[in-house]
Amino acid sequence: KTPFTVSGKSFTAVAINTAAKAGEWIKLKLGAHASLTTKSTPHDLVTEVDKGSETMIRNLIKTHFPHHSILGEEGVAPGAEASAQALKELQDEEYLWIVDPIDGTTNYVHGFPFFSVSIALAHRGEVIVGVVYDPNRDELFVAEKGKGVYVKGKRLDVSKESKLSEALVATGFPADSKFALPVNMKGLQAVAPRARNVRVAGSAALHMAYVAAGRLSGFWEIGLNSWDIAAGALLIQEAGGQVTDTAGQPYSLAVRHVLATNGAIHEELRETLAKAQATGF
Ligand code: IPD
Ligand code: CA
Ligand code: CA
Ligand code: CA
């Protein structure tokens, strides 16, 4: 049986309140992020607000659940290797919170209002709570394993489009990976003429929330990290969609090349990427 509480405290309530508080705060700080620095590459940005948001989230989680583990983007050394290693060390913990304190930092820096806070809770490697908060639209997407996904009290379902030609889909280009960029250019080139259209709006977590909400029919990206995907993956599963890696293997925390759809277009999108040899690097 999936545990959702410990000593009467709801994991989901803490996830919601924490994402909401962090989201409000980053919105308040928008435009005031003086201290911009780069991480693994000149495209890989971080601000004091990313770090402050993560500290706030860690502190709130620790207040309620002092014995739980936390994996947060800004607590890990830059680069794919360090991220994978950090996940490996923590993925079997009884309770692991997986945190992206700002998903869409590049948008955040430029004032492009498409970014989010993403918080997931995994129980022995399985995501049981996922929250993605968009402070710009005040939309908080929340899912509990087996209980559906909601935004503003309304239950969400994935879209019904069954052909790629009728589907609006999205992708992304990781800032920190020189390998992903050329590969996913091939993916984009293959998908764009077959889909109704493609969006690249710059927050993987929010794109995935939009798949759960039926606003997009699919999303794929290669070279992501666990904190970009974990919450969004549960949102989509709970909305009746499908999440795998780009090769079609079932979602797990270790997935970095993600394919997330309404289910109906999954195979067509997977095959399109496979034919273009754009499933990974
Ligand atoms: C990034 C965003 C972006 C995606 C990158 C991610 P960050 O996360 O999700 O949309 O294309 O791959 O790294 O660094 O802004 O948290
Ligand atoms: Ca980042
Ligand atoms: Ca991210
Ligand atoms: Ca981030």
Topology:
Elements: E1 5-6, E2 9-10, H1 11-28, E3 37-38, E4 45-46, H2 48-64, E5 69-72, H3 80-90, E6 95-103, H4 105-110, E7 116-123, E8 126-134, E9 139-144, E10 148-151, E11 154-155, E12 168-171, H5 180-191, E13 197-199, H6 204-212, E14 218-221, H7 226-238, E15 242-245, E16 258-261, H8 266-275
Parallel strand pairs: 5-6, 12-13, 12-14
Antiparallel strand pairs: 1-2, 3-4, 6-7, 7-8, 8-9, 9-10, 10-11, 14-16, 15-16
Helix pairs in contact: 1-2, 5-8, 6-7
State the domain count: 2
Name the poorly predicted regions.
none
Identify the CATH architecture of the largest domain.
Answer: 2-Layer Sandwich
Radius of gyration of CA atoms, rounded to a whole number: 17 Å
Bound ligand species: D-MYO-inositol-1-phosphate, calcium ion
Please give the share of residues in helix: 25-40%
Number of helices: 8
CATH superfamily of the largest domain: Fructose-1,6-Bisphosphatase, subunit A, domain 1
Largest sheet: 7 strands, mixed
Counting DSSP E segments of at least 2 residues, the number of strands comes to 16
Can you identify the CATH class of the largest domain?
Alpha Beta
Q: Helices and strands, in N-to-C order?
A: EEHEEHEHEHEEEEEEHEHEHEEH
Strand order of the largest sheet: 5-6-7-8-9-10-11
**Span between N and C termini?**
37 Å
Overall structural class, as computed from helix and strand content, comes to alpha+beta
Mean pLDDT: 96
Q: Which of globular, elongated, flat, extended, rod-shaped describes the shape? A: globular
